[in-house]
Structures are given as structure tokens and as C-alpha cells.
Design brief:
The chain is α+β, with helices and mostly antiparallel strands. It contains 6 helices and 13 strands. Helix content is about 25%, strand content about 30%.
Length: about 300
């Protein structure tokens, strides 16, 4: 399943540089290898793409430049390395949805960059602090969107979903609001790590609807949580877990899951090839299924040394 060169897609591939010989990087997180890919397409029906994505690598580094200490007395190089993946599905019609998803990501990044003490540890106290920060940042992102609306009233009513997954070594933290999703693919099994914040899912939670009926229920698109400029903003779903060697993390907007079954997604993730190849196949599948919405996928394939997993 190939996509033509002139299709309306945004794609990006990542490869990790090999450290120069003689320099040591001994932290657990720096030994993890991640094959990353991402792809976004406006679909076959909507006039513009309101989805946005971001994939980042963040580091804390130390490098010895000059010293009279004996060789090897202190580290020549040390790094803690983490990865962040984010998808946002804007809403609001016309250009407002596109503005909302882009502005939300920009605001979140600015909040992170202004934080003076990045937490680059994965222990219980640190995880708790990271999750609290993410919760506060989601609220601040809403404030930033409200400021945009005040400056440009034509954007009134805009909002966005936001789903973030960050990894440090084998540690994983997730912050999520809306109906975009994070999936974990492990040993041939696909598991959803996020809960859709929709009316249909709420009906399932209270026992008024069977989970197998959600896919066709008319209220599956009615959000109960979003970073919104009108009405209440749903609180972020926050949790953390551990990855294992060979795990794959998939973030996607509902433009994928509306068109492609979870069984079909799992089949794609089983196939050999790069993360970028898998993203292209998933988006192609959504387009072949009708492409009724913007579709965005971000995929990370993790190689974690056995003794560090």
C-alpha cells in the first residue's frame, strides 16, 4: 500500500546518531534505542488537517572538555536521554481546529522549556512530580488557547485533544485528554493504555452500553474531555508504567481508529520494517477505509538492553 508523492501528507523519520568512539554514555536511558516514525494526512473528506504531532528527544548531558585529572578519573561523557511523543486533534471548524492543535503543542513545549529543573529520574517521588507538572501544564495550555481567542474572536469555540507519552529508559508516563489514543504492542498483543473521554465510553463505564457497541454508537464522537475554550475542560488522565524490550508505542488520532480495526493495527505492527514504514501503512489503511477524518500516527519501537528492561 503506497502513497503517491503528491498526496497531502506530513511525514517525518528519525534515526539516532552513534556516539563517537572513545566517549562513554553509561546511563540506563542512553542505552535504549528507539526507532521513531510519524505521519499525518488530512484524509479524503476534510478540507484541512486539524491534527498536529510532535516527536522529541530531550537530554541532560555532561562532557569533559579540559582537565588535568588522570584519564578515566571522571566521565568523558554522560547523558540521560528521554523521548516525547504527542498528538493533538483540533476542533472548531474552518481553521480554528488547526490553530488549536498547533497552539496547544507550542504552548506545552514553551512551558517545558521554561521549567528550570527538568526531572530526569524514574523513581516514585520523581514520577509523582512529573505527573503533577503535566496536569498543571494541560491547564495552562487551555489558558493559552483562551488568550488566542481573546485576541482573535473568530477562533471562539476552538479546542483540541492532547495525548502525550514520555519515556526515560524503560519508564513511561502518559498524560491524555480527549479521544486520541496510546496503544502498547507487546509480544503480539495490542493493549490500549488510554480511555476515550467520550459520551459513549461514559455509557460503557456506567453499564448502559456494551463496549463492543461503542464503535457504531452515535455519541462516540461527543467528547466529555478536551482542552476547550468553551465549557469545562476535562482533567487529564495520568498514569505511568514500564516498557520491555521489543515494545512498541503507538499514538494516534481517531482518524485511524475509526477506519482501521485494532486487529488490523496489530497486524501492521507485527510486520517487519521501520517505524516509518508502519506509519505509512497505517495511514494508507485509514485512507483505503474511507479516510473520513484527518489521520495521524506516531510510533516508537523500543530496544531495551535485557539487563535494563
Amino acid at each position: 500500500m503506497g502513497m503517491s508523492k503528491d498526496d497531502d501528507a506530513d511525514t517525518i523519520e528519525f534515526s539516532l546518531p552513534t556516539p563517537p568512539a572513545g566517549q562513554r554514555a553509561t546511563s540506563i536511558s542512553s542505552q535504549v534505542q528507539v526507532d521513531l516514525g510519524a505521519l499525518s494526512h488530512r484524509g479524503k473528506v476534510r478540507p484541512n488537517n486539524e491534527d498536529s504531532f510532535l516527536v522529541t528527544r530531550f537530554e541532560r548531558t555532561f562532557r569533559t572538555l579540559l582537565t588535568n585529572l588522570p584519564a578515566g578519573y571522571v566521565s568523558e561523557q554522560y547523558a540521560e536521554t528521554g523521548y516525547g511523543m504527542l498528538v493533538a486533534d483540533g476542533m472548531g471548524g474552518a481553521a480554528a481546529g488547526e490553530v488549536a492543535s498547533r497552539a496547544a503543542i507550542k504552548s506545552l513545549v514553551e512551558l517545558v522549556l521554561r521549567t528550570p529543573d527538568w526531572i530526569m529520574r524514574y523513581d516514585e517521588p520523581s514520577i509523582t512530580q512529573v505527573l503533577k507538572r503535566l496536569d498543571r501544564r494541560f491547564l495552562k495550555v487551555r489558558e493559552a488557547l483562551l488568550e488566542r481567542v481573546q485576541a482573535d474572536p473568530s477562533l471562539a469555540g476552538m479546542g483540541t485533544t492532547m495525548t502525550v507519552a514520555c519515556t526515560l529508559g524503560a519508564g513511561l508516563v502518559i498524560a491524555h485528554v480527549g479521544d486520541s489514543r496510546v496503544y502498547l504492542f507487546r509480544e503480539g498483543q495490542l493493549s490500549r493504555l488510554t480511555r476515550d473521554q467520550t459520551m459513549a465510553q461514559t455509557l460503557v463505564d456506567v453499564g448502559a452500553l456494551r463496549s463492543e457497541d461503542v464503535a457504531t454508537h452515535p455519541m462516540r464522537h461527543v467528547l466529555t474531555g478536551a482542552i476547550a475554550t468553551q465549557g469545562a475542560t476535562g482533567r487529564a488522565e495520568l498514569h505511568h508504567s514500564q516498557l520491555a524490550d521489543g515494545d512498541q508505542l503507538l499514538l494516534c488520532t481517531d482518524g485511524l481508529t475509526e477506519m482501521v480495526t485494532e486487529a488490523a493495527i496489530a497486524e501492521v505492527l507485527t510486520a517487519q520494517g521501520s517505524a516509518a514504514d508502519a506509519c505509512r501503512t497505517l495511514v494508507d489503511s485509514a485512507l483505503e477505509g474511507g479516510g473520513k477524518d484527518n489521520v495521524t500516527v506516531v510510533l516508537g519501537r523500543y530496544r531495551i538492553p535485557e539487563e535494563r528492561a
